[in-house]
Design a protein that fits this description.
This protein is 5% helix and 64% strand. The chain is mainly β and 411 residues long. It has a 16-stranded antiparallel β-barrel. 13% of the residues are buried.
Length: 411
């Protein structure tokens, strides 16, 4: 009998069925383990206000198991704990979080057939997010779990390498539910409650996604080039589409929210020892049928979550013969919302749609100590500016910086 409380049983059985008889565990199997653990401490500053000194832990462990000449099994564990505050994009806007913790387990099988590779994979991730100091782990409003599985095919050809992939994701927010679904006892008028709650779901953030990806890599000397396109269809099975208000009718349609996301990307890199240079560009588009209604100002907005964004990310790495490594990178992102009008400080709506610009500058240093141990320091500075000045719910304008220092172990 399958233990229904263990989330890894079913994914493991699925992967083993995909492997079939092609991947028996031979006695001569070889295991090569790669691991990286870093322990850092630092501070976070938001608009010049400093938080207390906190720690950060990152861990990665991956033993590659050589099953046969043509097949490998790669289990991976990655974990992260961040005690420093930062602003995360959650539920459609920037939310200040105090602590985050994520644990991810994944399994990948690689079968090689001459110049072709086939890679089924699955993973399970659990993330905890604290917004307040007194919040307990497991009680966070935005805690979520992700279960995914997918398949990747790779073909190496004389002029480049082609990669196609499909992934399915199911994301669940166990602690997030609508207030309306919990408020029936508040309403004395049953008719009013039924009117408001018709078509309203209880778990609006839970979603499932289907993602298709295509990547082409080629190597025109002295550059390495990579171009990609991905398409994601995401549905929210318990999130009804907001309706234009009509007296005596439900504020929700019977339709459920569905988003379509597309990304076009291009990346180039070049090695100029001791320098390694890279630059990336991405153009994204999200189209959503979900609208929003601001009852305090009687404002209905279609395409509230739809946007177009463009990002650029140049980076540089300097690797010295001593083993010291310096990294510098800049990320610039511009977002144009299609149906979300900007508001003044008082909340009054303007005619222009929201436009947001984000700059992130990153600098890190790693220096070898002894026996696979490294001293490491990192500094990040982020600036977000927008024509949206009403920030009761989400942050659009802020300056944030983080510095971290500590030890890293690599195996």
């Amino acid at each position: 009998m399958v233990n229904k409380h263990n989330p890894f049983i079913v994914p493991s059985l699925i992967l083993l069925s995909l492997l079939g008889p092609a991947a028996p565990l031979y006695p001569a199997s070889k295991i090569l383990t790669v691991a990286d653990v870093s322990l850092l401490g630092g501070k976070y500053f938001l608009d010049s206000q400093a938080a207390s000194f906190q720690g950060r832990v990152d861990a990665f462990v991956s033993p590659t198991i050589k099953l046969s000449e043509n097949s490998d099994l790669i289990p991976v564990y990655s974990g992260n704990y961040s005690g420093t505050q930062d602003i995360q994009e959650l539920a459609g806007g920037g939310v200040l979080t105090r602590k985050r913790m994520t644990n991810t387990f994944s399994l990948k099988y690689i079968y090689t057939d001459e110049f072709n590779k086939y890679k089924p994979r699955l993973s399970y991730s659990k993330a905890g997010i604290k917004e307040t100091k007194d919040e307990k782990w497991g009680d966070g409003l935005f805690d979520y779990t992700t279960l995914s599985f997918g398949f990747e095919a790779e073909q190496e050809r004389p002029r480049g390498t082609f990669t196609e992939s499909y992934d399915y994701y199911k994301v669940t927010y166990p602690n997030y539910s609508t207030l309306l679904s919990q408020s029936q006892s508040v309403f004395n008028d049953t008719t009013t409650f039924n009117q408001l709650s018709t078509n309203a779901g209880a778990n609006p953030l839970d979603n499932t996604s289907h993602r298709l990806g295509f990547v082409y890599s080629w190597f025109p000397e002295p550059l390495n080039m990579k171009a990609g396109y991905d398409f994601t269809y995401r549905t929210y099975g318990d999130q009804a589409v907001a309706a234009r208000p009509v007296t005596g009718q439900s504020p929700f349609k019977s339709d459920k929210r569905a988003d379509i996301m597309q990304n076009f990307s291009l990346r180039a890199s070049r090695a100029l020892k001791p320098l390694f240079l890279s630059a990336g560009a991405r153009l994204g588009w999200l189209s959503s049928n979900q609208g929003s209604y601001d009852s305090t100002r009687s404002k209905y907005m279609e395409d509230y979550y739809s946007y177009v964004d463009l990002s650029l990310s140049p980076a540089m790495t300097l690797a010295l013969p001593s083993g010291a490594q310096f990294n510098f990178g800049v990320d610039w992102r511009q977002v144009w919302y299609q149906g979300r009008p900007a508001q003044a400080d008082t909340g009054t709506y303007g005619k222009a749609e929201i436009k947001q610009t984000c700059w992130l500058t990153s600098l890190s240093v790693r220096y070898p100590l002894a026996n696979r141990f490294f001293a490491r320091a990192a500094y990040n500075y982020q600036v977000s500016s927008s024509n949206m000045h009403y920030e009761e719910s989400y942050r659009y304008n802020y300056r944030a910086s983080t510095y971290l220092m500590g030890i890293e172990w690599e195996f």
